[in-house]
Amino acid sequence: MCGIVGMVSQKKIDSHVLNSMTELLYHRGPDDGGAVILNEGRVGLGNRRLKIIDLSPAGHQPMSLGDRYWITYNGEVYNFEDIRGELEMRGHAFRSRTDTEVVLHAYAEWGKECVQKFNGMFAFAIWDNIEGELFIARDRLGIKPLYYTTVGDTFLFSSEFKTFSSHPDFSRQVDEDSLVSLLFFLWIADPRTILKNVRSLPAANRLLYKNGIVKTERYWDLASFDRTDQHDVSEEEVFEKIATAVRRQMISDVPVGALLSGGLDSSAIVAFMNEHARDRVKTYTIVYKAEDLRHEAMENDAVYARLIAEKFNTDHKEIMIDPDVSELLPKLLWHLDNPVADPAVINTYLIAQAAREDGTLVLLTGAGGDEIFSGYRKHLATSLGLYYRKIPHFVRRRLIEPGVNMLPVAGEQKGYRMNRWLKRFVRNASDEPIQAFIGNYAYFTLEELNEAVIPALRTDMLNYSYVRHFEMFRRSAAMDFVNQMCYVDVNLFLPNLNLLYTDKGTMAASVEVRPPLLDHELVELAFRIPGRRKIRGLTQKYLFKKAMERVLPREVIYRPKAPFGAPLRSWTRKQLLPMINDLYTEESVKRRGIFHYPAIRRMIDANTSGREDHAHRLWCLLTIELWFRQAIDNNPIISRPASVPAINIMPVG
Q1: Nearest Cα to 384, choosing from 340, 329, 421?
Q2: What is the mean pLDDT of residues 333-351?
Q3: What is the pLDDT of residues 162-191, one digit of tens each?
Q4: Is the peptide bond before 191 cis (omega within 30 degrees of 0)?
Q5: Which of these, 193, 155, 180, 221, lies nearest to 5 by C-alpha position?
Q6: N- to C-terminal Cα separation, the chain
Q7: In 339-414, where do the E strands start and end?
Q8: What is the average per-residue pLDDT within 194-203?
Q9: Taking a C-beta distance cutoff of 8 angstroms, is the pair 492, 228 a contact?
Q10: Residues with active-site annotation
């Protein structure tokens, strides 16, 4: 696992810029670093390496193949040994045991179609000295990030776009439409980012840069599969495919552990790891203080995690969450680059930090299970909404909804989870299905959003991220509605929120995370499962749960849904409240020029009193203001080591 950077220019590049860009990714690869300048000084590639496979110097990057090809690579291709065998039969010779070298030879053999061969997570760039072109590719699900921009006559790419600021001509230009998307969803749909002049290469896309022209194309799409092969996938098929994915992703020359939440997804991963591990599996779980859990009104993950740890005899560690959030949030925003307003990044970082201190450099996670098997409440709520709409309109509008909207969401000592769920449900259940689906995980209604922002930012909901949802529903029109919801989440919610904060949060601690449930072969199988076998009655992830009954306790499989998050409701009412009040005074709000102060004040007061649950909105407000102070007001939080070892830039050709 690594951090990659690069630049292609029509004039000679500045080696100091390339070096600075590479050093800014030190946290992604503290074990080794390198950079090369090619093509008479007009091309630069940089790499920071976290050694996972082949720990020898033979894995040093950037890596070359003869005088023609150079690669800087981030990721893991789990089937690289099979591909290597095929390439050796075609006459290729290797000097290392790395998957990096296999990717390089695969490109030399098959060109851009090499990506079809890879099972894994990756973002890499290959420079072809003869053709004078740069090839970039990102994995099918968007597990590893890749950003790019053009500054004058120079094309820049990187794992993290903070590196672009090393170029003296780069300027940050806030994309106001993306800002609205962040408020609405807590994340921004690719290829846009929070900056107008920076793009995120979408999942399953490849890019070719030549003679100043950027061309991108998608090479894999679940919507393009032949739907006639959809069948009642068996429990055995699901079981075996997950087992294969976990076994495949345990390949490593350093210790591998697991992030164990005690939910179905992570517990399934641990069960299969236990079968293939040489030593006791190390597992790590977040533990909340009891007083914080009262406001969340949810079950304690630690109880279920202990049950799984005992069943599979894992070397189990519990990490108590009681951080100084006001200090951690700015630091993690620096790592995130593209701000996402999800506090789960804090949990992710703290687990990764604890794992690294414990000697574990690779963690397997259950990420992706809710997206591919339909496990989110919004999936169930939208499905139930189809029945709710059959209730006469006057009964819904005059009796049910006014009564639900009067319910408090929290008392002095605890939160009321069912009330929160009911209020969100009735807010959207009467809408058309697509609109209801979007509304079920939007954090503002149109009216609330427009009340909260200045007139220049008010929207008719045709912001970019919103429109992208309808685009995905149209693209997946041949699927049943449950699979359409899964398709939208796999293409938007997963790469732009969950995978983004997972990558940035873990790499901030120099730890690699792998999600076996996003093995693309398993994902393809999951999209052959009809929706009625994903949601049956009130049971979500039905077929997955049935498949896991043979190895997991029923109390884990059928426990209530518990999101992987943080005690946000407690934090915003207690620990973070002084910070919220300090950042959002009337004077500071007017100076920033984004929000309408009376609306913000009402939100803060309603959340503090327990009348309404605005915890995620307030976290988003904190995220936005702190990001602006770092990225726009020039008050950066430097979280890399004070002294980063210099790398030698090697001029070639």
Answers
A1: 421
A2: 92
A3: 999 999 999 999 999 999 999 989 999 999
A4: yes
A5: 155
A6: 28
A7: 362-364
A8: 97
A9: no
A10: 2
Other beta carbons within 10 angstroms of residue 247's beta carbon come to 15
Residue 525 CA to residue 519 CA, distance in Å, equals 10
In total, the chain counts a number of residues equal to 653
For the stretch 283-308, pLDDT in tens is 999 887 766 666 555 567 889 999 99
The structure tokens listed for 392 are 């006469």
pLDDT in tens, 88-109: 999 999 999 999 999 999 999 9
CA–CA dist 56, 58 (Å, integer): 5
- Backbone φ, ψ for residue 484 (5° rounding): -60, -45
Residue 416 pLDDT class (50, 70, 90 cuts): low
Phi/psi at 252 (5° precision): -175, 150
pLDDT for position 570 = 83
Work out the angle between the directed axes of helices 499-507 and 344-357 (0-180°, nearest 10).
40
Name the burial class of residue 428, with classes exposed (0-12), middle (13-18) and buried (19+) by CB atoms within 10 angstroms of its CB: buried
Say which residues have a Cβ less than 8 Å from residue 444's Cβ, sequence separation at least 6. Answer: 183, 184, 452, 617
Phi and psi based region of residue 220 (left: phi greater than 0; alpha: psi -120 to 50; beta: remaining)? beta
Query: E strands within 462-531?
Result: 512-514
Please state whether the peptide bond connecting residue 455 to the residue before it is cis, i.e. omega within 30 degrees of 0. no
The confidence band for 403, taking pLDDT boundaries of 50, 70 and 90, is confident
Q: What residues contact residue 585 under an 8 Å CB cut-off, 6+ apart?
A: none
E strands, 256-397, where? Answer: 256-259, 282-288, 315-321, 362-364
Joined tokens for residue 551: 């190895």
| Tokens of residue 229, six digits | 């092969």
* 454 Ramachandran zone, left/alpha/beta (phi>0; psi -120 to 50): beta
Q: What is d(CA 616, CA 93) in angstroms, rounded to the nearest whole number?
A: 53
User: At residue 198, what are phi and psi to the nearest 5 degrees?
Assistant: -130, 135
